[in-house]
Amino acid sequence: xxxxxxxxxxxxxxxxxxxxxxxxxxxxxxxxxxxxxxxxxxxxxxxxxxxxxxxxxxxxxxxxxxxxxxxxxxxxxxxxxxxxxxxxxxxxxxxxxxxxxxxxxxxxxxxxxxxxxxxxxxxxxxxxxxxxxxxxxxxxxxxxxxxxxxxxxxxxxxxxxxxxxxxxxxxxxxxxxxxxxxxxxxxxxxxxxxxxxxxxxxxxxxxxxxxxxxxxxxxxxxxxxxxxxxxxxxxxxxxxxxxxxxxxxxxxxxxxxxxxxxxxxxxxxxxxxxxxxxxxxxxxxxxxxxxxxxxxxxxxxxxxxxxxxxxxxxxxxxxxxxxxxxxxxxxxxxxxxxxxxxxxxxxxxxxxxxxxxxxxxxxxxxxxxxxxxxxxxxxxxxxxxxxxxxxxxxxxxxxxxxxxxxxxxxxxxxxxxxxxxxxxxxxxxxxxxxxxxxxxxxxxxxxxxxxxxxxxxxxxxxxxxxxxxxxxxxxxxxxxxxxxxxxxxxxxxxxxxxxxxxxxxxxxxxxxxxxxxxxxxxxxxxxxxxxxxxxxxxxxxxxxxxxxxxxxxxxxxxxxxxxxxxxxxxxxxxxxxxxxxxxxxxxxxxxxxxxxxxxxxxxxxxxxxxxxxxxxxxxxxxxxxxxxxxxxxxxxxxxxxxxxxxxxxxxxxxxxxxxxxxxxxxxxxxxxxxxxxxxxxxxxxxxxxxxxxxxxxxxxxxxxxxxxxxxxxxxxxxxxxxxxxxxxxxxxxxxxxxxxxxxxxxxxxxxx
Length: 752
Hints:
- The chain is of the alpha+beta class and 752 residues long.
- The protein contains 27 helices and 20 strands.
- Helix 9 crosses helix 10 and helix 18 (470-479) crosses helix 23.
- The longest helix is centred in the N-terminal third of the chain and has 36 residues, at 2-37.
- The N and C termini lie far apart (140 Å).
- Mean pLDDT is 86; it is low at 29-36, 118-127 and 741-752.
């Protein structure tokens, strides 16, 4: 009996001792995890950081029709909400990465036990034991998760567990799924599911089908390993595994799997590189404007907005459909012009010919290259440098006939030859603005941002405008009381000390009386010079200033012929006044800026100002309609099915065919196009190719044809230009009974 009692006491003491050790162990574990949470194994995010996790989010540039034009980023990420996800995405993710996701609280004990037994004790590969929540913790708070080594991995895993538990307490399951999709990377600098959907399939995440959703989830195991662009068979195999796991969880049927298993992965790939995609030059203008705005505006905490991290949204006036039409028209015309240009010059160097010739242009271009500077710094002689530049080697050049439609062509060429080649590439600037508001609907700065950085549409880029200046001169005449039928004698201008006699069109005989409006229709330099002689170039400068042209203008007689350098933006803006009964509409391109949660940070309105009297603008515009109906812009109607529309406009061509212009005006749009080369000394060999009606007008014509054929754009092909409020104003445009002209010149060129 005593022995039995002794045994019981020993058992009870042992049991109590085990209890103490067990509770002590539990207490130590609790204290250990508390210590980890307090930073024992390194810094841990606080509750605020967990409740409001911050990831770098791209600034997104939006078109007026709701399309993404581009992003500015360090990590190219656009956040998405849960209801914007395709159900297939959610099911594919859970089936592949964490099939007990909805049953655990951040840590899958069953999965951990499996990994411990099979991997730790049996040496088998049992897969990972991390839950989606743990993976999210690693994605959000990756201070030291990149470290290797068993001890480091153990520390990381312990921190993951604590963070996963905290995340589960602060977020719903749907929110965790959403956060996960916003943090993962997919290659090609695409972070988050929204950017990846755009990059690989050019779709919104909610529009992804089963196989597309499974493909993106398949990539999570390694975007480079499972890259559908370059490893399609391997990625397809992984995609099918994802769908098979969805079948196992009854998320999709076996029949659905069988219907897609053999289908190849069909991509609609769009490289997120800022130099690729639509409206690339315009996006750079937006970036400059946004940086300037960020410098002047601060967040609530006093810090500046960061366009690469803060997830701003910039809502622009650009219409993605009209932008696409403009770019399609530009590429089509550039391909034709480039082929024609090379055929005309037949290997000659065009910068050595013409009134703007610069024989040393190629050598100057060579001396401005980084390669030249490197060779010079290395002590190479000019002869050695020339030898290096003349050595041929493999390279990829820009070519409208490039392989796969990407305008890249592999060739063998010397560095000097490549410089000469790029000097001869035809360039384009294009703007289309709403005639009433000035909102820019399409913007082309050049042919390809990757190869040509100069933006020919922005205000700081200026070129000779040629005859597009003439409507301003005729507006001066109307403003000073002349009628469209005012007669002029077709002869050398009566001003300029007898030494200025610009060439005319030879449409009329010497001494013949010609109605003023016909000088505009047919863009006759002699006629325009005679109009200028009656008022002087100062009056034309004054008119240009009324129309908000700010470029330097020298008051010389030839100003009326467009010898001054003015930007495309200024010229298009000026023409809005002709379309709008004298109301100038400043070209604008941003409507509002919001933060990533949609809170409006800034709004931007339009800017209209009265520039001309109604009768002056109306009469000038009616005269410009003759340019399209009978004059130098007549092919706009005949070739682009615009026969019944109200259209006015003006062509323009400069010396040596270096600059080709066309500005077309409808009641809805003012559309301007410049075609030329980065260097004015490079030019077309013939007027037949290089004049405004041949080089620039076709781009505007094709753009208008496509835009007006799209009913969703709500452009009205039957609209007419507005009429003056004075119903008694009725200028005469019927010049059939014109009387003989007399010399009415009132201005003379001052003697030197």
